[in-house]
């Protein structure tokens, strides 16, 4: 990832953690997380039988002073206000403020502008996908929470990225309700303290994470939301054309030594996931 330097910084202490976490000696990165699909593996949507959790990593000064103003301008251009909270579901269903996209020409213009913004912006993606069908057959431990497993995958890869960049980072998941948030933050602290099979110490990540609700209108979180669905769709339906995926396909974190994405910027479970993909055109 290209290092960002010499950007002016807005130091207002707002809700967004990227605006309040600063250190003059280290590059600081913040990862916003959101998911596509249902984390309940006791039921499954036959059209979307996966859980895709996607993290978008920004350098904090770049995020605050460069990316976020551009994202706000995109909202003002189409909605007249930056207070609109964009989600993939609202856009696909033309719901609420996105009802304006009943006009297909306007929708095409929006996708073009959003795609240009994403492709030209500096951030990386670390994403995990779990196919539900093999999980239900106990290929994974029946006691392991699939959402927490995905977070572990992402934390490991975020740690590797931060080590390579000589930086430190913070992970901001989407809030899913008080009980689920408490379980997630407790699991995060436990993992941060004890390490994992592949990371002895998560010493590049903040020791605690806190979840943020969509209602807070955090730009990075909305980018994670808008990225998760296209990524999940691409891996579930590999033979289809996925235009939304094209604007983010080069954002995946790559192995610094090999340049490969698989197992680094994207982790798919199980390893033989191809047998569970849907081959339709």
């Amino acid at each position: 990832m290209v290092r960002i330097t010499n950007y002016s910084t807005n130091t207002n202490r707002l809700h967004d953690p990227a605006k309040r976490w600063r250190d003059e000696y280290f590059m600081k990165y913040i990862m916003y997380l959101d998911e596509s699909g249902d984390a309940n593996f006791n039921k499954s949507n036959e059209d979307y039988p996966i859980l895709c959790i996607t993290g978008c990593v920004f350098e904090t000064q770049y995020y605050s002073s460069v990316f976020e103003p551009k994202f706000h301008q995109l909202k003002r251009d189409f909605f007249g206000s930056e207070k609109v909270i964009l989600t993939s579901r609202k856009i696909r269903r033309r719901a609420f403020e996105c009802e304006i996209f009943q006009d297909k020409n306007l929708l095409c213009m929006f996708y073009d502008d959003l795609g240009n913004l994403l492709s030209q912006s500096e951030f990386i993606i670390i994403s995990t996908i779990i196919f539900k069908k093999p999980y239900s057959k106990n290929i994974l431990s029946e006691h392991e929470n699939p959402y927490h497993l995905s977070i572990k995958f992402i934390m490991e890869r975020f740690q590797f990225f931060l080590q390579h960049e000589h930086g430190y980072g913070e992970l901001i998941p989407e809030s899913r309700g008080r009980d689920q948030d408490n379980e997630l933050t407790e699991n995060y602290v436990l993992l941060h303290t004890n390490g994992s099979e592949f990371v002895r110490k998560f010493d590049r990540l903040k020791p605690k994470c806190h979840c943020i609700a969509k209602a807070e209108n955090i730009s990075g979180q909305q980018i994670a939301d808008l990225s998760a669905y296209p990524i999940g769709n691409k891996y579930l339906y590999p033979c289809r054309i996925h235009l939304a995926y094209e604007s983010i396909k080069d954002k995946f974190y790559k192995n610094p030594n090999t340049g490969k994405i698989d197992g680094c910027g994207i982790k798919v479970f199980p390893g033989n996931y191809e047998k569970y993909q849907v081959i339709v055109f």
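The CA atoms of residues 4 and 103 lie 38 Å apart. Residues 1-14, 20-25 have pLDDT under 50 and may be disordered.
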